[in-house]
Every structure is written in C-alpha cells, then in structure tokens.
Design brief:
It is built from three helices and 13 strands. A hairpin with a 2-residue loop joins strand 3 and strand 4. Its EC number is 5.1.3.13.
Length: about 170
C-alpha cells in the first residue's frame, strides 16, 4: 500500500498491490494498522454494486472519513474541496481500478461514475452512517467535471443538489 498526496489537503491516492493467482488475482484491500496510519479507524464497510456503466453518484461531503476502492470494474472519481478554507472548490479527478483506492477526509465532497459494467465499489468509513451531508450538483458548470458518458444515470436527489453558488449563500 503506497499513499500519495493529491492537490486537495488530506486526500490521498492509494496504490494497492494486486497479485495474480490461479484463475484471477488477490489484493489486500483492508489492513487495519495501515489504514490507521492514514488516520482511518474503520467502523463500517459498505459495498455498492452497479450493473451498468455510466451510473453517477455524488457529490456528497459527509461527516466521516472515507476509504474508497473498486473490487471489480473501473470508476471515474471526482473529489471537491468543500471545507471552509482557501482551497474551497478545488476539484481533482481520478480513474480508479482494482489496484487503486482513495482516502477522502470528512468535509471533502466525493462522487464517482462507473466506467464499466458490473462495477463493485467498497466504501470504508470511520463513523456509522447518518443522513447528515453536504451535497452539490455534480453538473455545476463551475466545477467543470468532464463526466465520461453522455447518457448518465443518476438519482433525482443528486440532480436536485444545490449549486456551489447556493452553497456559498447558505454558508454566508
């Protein structure tokens, strides 16, 4: 496990070693001591499966740290700095496969779009789920995220998320 900083403070891109074996591969996706070194004490492990490519989720900033990694398929992940600081609204995108993970601290918005059918996405968090979150419109032109598909599938709730301008007004 090799963690590298990104342009957003606290967000880490993690490279995982994937070892081929008879008929497939093996990877150590979770190692308590190694994740604790990153500051993550996992209390909940969620798994999401997506049958189709082009499924978009986010942008959500929850009150917990996240460790995100696909175990099958590929995703385009986008993280957005939404914490109150000088780098507010910095955006960075990552293509993640089975040998990749992201560590996203609380308050940083995260989203993803499946790039392949049959994608399984793991989300490890350090607090139990609650409905509290900040959400931002993933299509906000100010973010200028280039989502990889024209025919995206997303929830009505995500599509109804406020713009960055609305979020700024709420915080003022």
């Amino acid at each position: 496990m090799k963690a590298r900083p990104t342009t957003i403070a606290g967000v880490l891109r993690v490279e995982l070693e994937v070892k081929p074996n008879d008929g497939g591969w093996f990877k150590e996706n979770f190692h308590r001591a190694k994740l604790a070194e990153l500051g993550l004490d996992v209390v909940q492990h969620n798994v999401a499966y997506f049958e189709e490519a082009g499924v978009l989720r986010g942008i959500h900033a929850e009150p917990w740290d996240k460790y995100l990694s696909p175990t099958s398929g590929r995703v385009l992940a986008a993280v957005v700095e939404l914490r109150d600081n000088a780098a507010f609204v910095r955006v960075e995108t990552f293509e993640l496969g089975t040998s990749d993970a992201l560590y996203v601290p609380r308050g940083v918005g995260n989203s993803f779009c499946t790039l392949t059918p049959h994608t399984t996405y793991n989300l490890l968090v350090n607090e139990h789920w609650s409905p509290e979150r900040i959400a931002v419109d993933p299509f906000d032109p100010e973010l200028a995220i280039e989502w990889p598909a024209e025919d995206l599938k997303y929830t009505e709730r995500d599509a109804a998320s406020p713009s960055l301008e609305d979020l700024r007004r709420q915080r003022a």
